[in-house]
């Protein structure tokens, strides 16, 4: 699986898919279909297709990874957060807002009730919720999610971190959708300043 991961990062997804299929065949027989290692391979397959915007292929792989983790940990556990976020991201991209809503709000419930959820997982969930609300044109709810995400990113990554800049840009989009152009322009300007610093350092 490690070799397959390296192939994915190198852009050789066809060869990586063959290796993942082989790993799944071996580990499903030797470890059982609901083993955590099998879930990890399914997640890696999902990531491979997700990275290439092949969402219809990524979704079944992510869904299978989630199902296995649910079998191991139960339906409301911190270990489900990454699987829920990965799946939700794909659903948002393909415009399946109903499915995205289910997994994103489930992640939100876990993030607020399970102390084992990391702040970075919470940040990813808030960002995803904001993107979903933007896609649904529910701008005030998107604004609330992105405001929380920006605050958390500043704590985790720093005020001038690229991640913070990208979140500010999405916050500006939500504020603009809510009809507050001047405020959105100010947020955009701050995002541009941060991201320009990133570009200059590359």
Explain what this protein looks like in three dimensions:
There is one protein chain. This protein is mostly helical. Helix content is 82%, strand content 0%. The chain contains 10 helices and no strands. Helix 7 packs antiparallel against helix 8 and helix 7 packs parallel to helix 9. It starts with a helix and ends with a helix.
In terms of topology, how is this protein built?
Layout: H1 2-9, H2 13-31, H3 36-51, H4 55-73, H5 81-94, H6 97-113, H7 119-135, H8 139-156, H9 162-177, H10 181-201
Helix pairs in contact: 1-2, 2-3, 3-4, 4-5, 5-6, 5-7, 6-7, 7-8, 7-9, 8-9, 9-10
Features:
single chain, 202 residues, mainly alpha, 0% strand, elongated
Mean pLDDT: 92
Percentage of helical residues? over 70%
* Molecular shape: elongated
Uncertain segments are none
Give me the number of helical elements: 10
> What would you report as the Rg, rounded to the nearest angstrom?
18 Å
For the terminal residues, how far apart are their CA atoms?
Answer: 31 Å
Number of strands: 0
The portion of residues forming beta strands comes to: under 5%
Order of helices and strands: HHHHHHHHHH
Helix and strand content put the structural class at mainly alpha
Main sheet characteristics? none
* Quaternary state of the chains: single chain
């Amino acid at each position: 699986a490690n070799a397959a991961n390296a192939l994915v990062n190198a852009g050789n997804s066809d060869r990586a898919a063959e290796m993942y299929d082989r790993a799944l065949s071996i580990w499903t027989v030797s470890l059982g279909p609901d083993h955590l290692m099998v879930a990890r391979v399914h997640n890696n397959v999902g990531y491979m297709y997700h990275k290439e915007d092949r969402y219809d292929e990524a979704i079944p792989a992510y869904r299978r990874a989630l199902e296995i983790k649910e079998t191991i940990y139960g339906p409301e556990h911190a270990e489900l957060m990454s699987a829920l976020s990965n799946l939700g991201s794909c659903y948002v991209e393909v415009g399946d807002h109903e499915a995205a809503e289910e997994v994103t709000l489930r992640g939100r419930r876990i993030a607020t009730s399970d102390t084992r959820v990391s702040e970075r997982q919470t940040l990813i969930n808030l960002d995803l919720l904001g993107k979903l609300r933007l896609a649904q044109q529910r701008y005030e709810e998107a604004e609330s999610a992105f405001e929380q995400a920006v605050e958390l990113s500043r704590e985790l990554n720093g005020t001038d971190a690229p991640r913070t800049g990208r979140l500010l840009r999405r916050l500006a989009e939500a504020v603009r959708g809510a009809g507050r152009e001047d405020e959105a322009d100010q947020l955009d300007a701050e995002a541009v300043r941060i991201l320009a610093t990133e570009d200059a350092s590359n």
